[in-house]
Write a structure and sequence with these properties.
The structure holds 2 protein chains of 2 kinds. Chain A is α/β, with parallel strands linked by helices. Chain A has 17 helices and 19 strands. The radius of gyration of chain A is 22 Å and the shape is globular. By secondary structure, chain B is of the alpha/beta class. In chain B, 34% of the residues lie in helices and 16% in strands. Chain B has helices at residues 21-24, 44-47, 84-92, 104-113, 122-134, 164-172, 176-181, 184-193; strands at residues 7-14, 69-72, 96-99, 116-119, 139-143, 148-151, 157-159. A 7-stranded mixed sheet of chain B has the order 4-3-2-1-5-6-7. In chain B, α3 (84-92) crosses α4 (104-113). The longest helix of chain B has 13 residues, at 122-134. The chains are: A alpha/beta, B alpha/beta.
Chain lengths: 465, 194
């Protein structure tokens, strides 16, 4: 009787996808989940492959594994051998491991190469109702399609390579509703920075977050990905958004998307996924879109964000962060001089982001005191930037388009912001030293980043559009 | 994996909230293709200045503190999923981290590598920090079998949670991949059905 009631009860999107993927439930322990798609890159996979070699086993499902180098590659001169020896070896190691285990690799220079969380969606590999993992915390990005997607560690990569399965304790459920109309100059990046500022950098820990409400539903897939991408920045295991017509429209016709009869079958399944009316969440929050302004961070974790028109707060716990950032309580954010602007990353490295950036930059020049790095999320995005004439707009503004990669988001390659310098970045983390030892990062949207690039200081984009 | 034994040890107090994995091991040290040697760069930019000289104010450089247990403030290990952070802490010599709150991925990575994350209440964490402040040689006892952490000098203790599967793995040194491979039939059946 109890079981029947449970089956009949309303389910969340997350529950539906989760239940479909449980291979085995360990009593009093985690579930063993089947993983539909495993994405790998050069930095977190080598030790996992070593583990397989030590055991003398092969990758169980190379057809469900996809590799691309992105974290540790240069964004200039990709056609040449990588100069830095350790980086070159790491990228080479990925190629060798893929060859040995028969895994598809979109290597450096390949037409599909790019940041792992950009290429999955743009190739139609990411689809609703899937389980997707990658040795990278921003795997949460793929949740925008109604998939359970989350980052894992290297030991877990080895588990998935070996068995296509993973241990997972079921997370608690959270729903965040955003309703209402967004103001001028306010983007999905501002929505998520606003939410994280409200909930703090640890506020989502232990939860899987469904983002819902009419504001979220009105967003493009690119914008939804930015929101799910940063779910991890409030500690959440992942973010998820119900698939709808916008989702289906985005996927249809992409390289690896299902076609013909397969498409119809998939679509029928996807339409069953949205959370049922009356489904219960462990916790629920609601926000009014009209209260959101262009946002910027002032501190050293993504929860330390504020509306761009606000002044630096004076809380005592912020002391170390403010010292690091060279800011004082009560300082105005607007007008603060900056040194670097970086647009790119799995957070804001999609075509729509460069269109937004270009819309502000068009017909203007970058400020002399600012170095601007424009890094597309993938080769496809790079080609689109050229085809749509955005590259010409950037060049006319005195900005140079670089080649795809994670670049200055984590500064593993040479794209490093020098110590003490200020950077406005469209990325996801403003941790101490994140963009290079001693670097100081302000997180913002592509629109705000563009405004800052033009004026050379922190600027409210609404004053120049 | 090495079996986890009961630890009685002095500890290193790191009373900072939201310690992210970029601080534990900065990205520029992730270029290695093996898991050894990361301890040298644990907390690199907090531990050393630009000229690679130890910063005297950082706790790992304070000879008064040592031991196999790192005690940190809440939301420890947030940010990047890099398991290198756990390798660095383990390689440095720690076998347990105590905090009132761990980031999810860090917690999983720790359990997979034999580093025990011990989550205690805010009040108990405050007691530990206070005790260590008064006496740098304060011993903590972490008993995984009975899921209990004790401040040896005062006898104050608190139970802690750990999932029973992982507890068994840690105590007996079991390997997750071996376990998953033993489910081969179930995995095959699942693949056929979907």
């Amino acid at each position: 009787m109890f079981i029947n009631l449970k089956i009949m009860s309303a389910k969340t999107l997350f529950d539906k996808v989760w239940e479909r993927h449980v291979v085995h439930q360990i009593e009093g322990g985690p579930a063993v989940l089947y993983i539909d798609q495993h994405l790998i890159h050069e930095v977190t996979s080598p030790v996992a492959f070593k583990g397989l070699d030590r055991r003398g086993i092969k990758v169980r499902r190379p057809d469900r594994t996809l590799a691309t180098p992105d974290h540790n590659i240069p964004t200039m001169g990709q056609e040449l051998p990588i100069k830095e020896e350790l980086s070159r070896m790491q990228v080479q190691q990925l190629s060798e491991n893929c060859k040995k285990h028969n895994i598809t690799l979109f290597g450096l220079g390949h037409k599909y190469n790019g940041v792992v969380h950009i290429i999955g969606p743009e190739l139609g590999i990411t689809k609703p109702g899937m389980t997707i993992v990658c040795g990278d915390s921003h795997t949460a990005t793929h949740g925008a399609f109604g998939s359970i997607a989350f980052g894992i560690g290297t030991s877990e990569i080895e588990m998935v390579l070996a068995s296509q399965c993973l241990f997972q304790a079921k997370p608690k459920s959270m729903r965040i509703n955003v309703n209402g109309k967004l103001g001028k100059g306010v983007t999905s990046k501002d929505i998520i920075l606003y939410i994280i500022a409200k909930l703090t950098a640890g506020g989502g820990t232990g939860y899987f977050v469904e983002f819902a409400g009419d504001t979220i539903r009105s967003l493009s897939m690119e914008a939804r990905m930015t929101i799910c991408n940063m779910a991890i920045e409030m500690g959440a295991r992942g973010g998820i958004i119900a698939p709808d017509e916008t989702t289906f429209e985005y996927i249809k016709g992409r390289e690896f998307a299902p076609k013909g009869e397969e498409w119809d079958k998939a679509l029928a399944y996807w339409k069953t996924l949205p959370t049922d009316e009356g489904a219960k969440f462990d916790i629920e929050y609601s926000f009014d879109a009209a209260d959101i302004e262009p946002m910027i961070t002032y501190g050293t974790n993504p929860g330390m964000g504020l509306k761009i028109s606000q002044n630096v707060p004076s809380d005592e716990p912020n002391k170390q962060a403010l010292e690091y950032m060279g800011l004082k309580a009560g300082d105005s954010m607007i007008g603060k001089p900056i040194d670097y602007v970086f647009i790119g990353s799995c957070t804001n490295g999609r075509i729509e982001d460069f269109r937004a950036f270009a819309s502000v930059v068009k017909g203007k020049k970058k400020a002399d005191n600012v170095t601007v790095w424009i890094v597309p999320g993938s080769k496809q995005v790079e080609r689109q930037i050229e085809a749509e004439g955005l590259k010409a707009i950037f060049e006319a503004a005195g900005m140079q388009l670089r080649q795809p990669g994670c670049s200055a988001c984590l500064a593993m390659n040479e794209d490093k912001v020098p110590a003490g310098k200020y950077s406005v970045a469209t990325t996801n983390r403003n941790f101490e030293g994140r963009q290079g030892p001693g670097s100081r990062t302000f997180l913002a949207s592509p629109l705000t980043a563009a405004a800052c690039a033009i004026t050379g200081k922190i600027t409210d984009v609404r004053t120049i559009i | 994996m090495e079996k986890f034994q009961t630890i009685t040890s002095s500890c290193v107090p790191l009373n900072i909230e939201n310690v992210d994995t970029d601080q534990i091991i900065p990205a520029r040290f992730l270029k290695a293709t093996s898991r050894e040697g990361f301890g040298d760069n644990l907390f690199r930019d907090w531990r050393y200045d630009n000229e690679n000289k130890p910063k005297p104010n950082f706790v790992l450089n304070n000879p008064a503190y040592s031991g196999k247990i790192l005690v940190a403030a809440k939301n420890f290990g947030c940010g990047s999923s890099r398991e290198h952070a756990v390798w660095a802490i383990y390689d440095y010599g720690f076998r347990a981290v105590v905090s009132s709150f761990f980031a999810d991925i860090f917690k999983n990575n720790s359990l997979n590598c034999g580093l025990l994350p011990v989550q205690v209440s805010d009040a108990f964490l405050a007691k530990i920090f206070k005790q260590v402040d008064a006496d740098a040689k304060t011993l903590l006892k972490i008993d995984l079998e009975n899921q209990k952490i004790t401040i040896v000098a005062t006898g104050e203790s608190e139970p802690f949670e750990v999932n029973s599967y992982k507890k068994e793995c840690l105590l007996k040194g079991y390997d997750d991949v071996d376990y998953l491979l033993s489910l081969k039939d179930k995995i095959e059946a699942y693949e056929k059905a979907h």
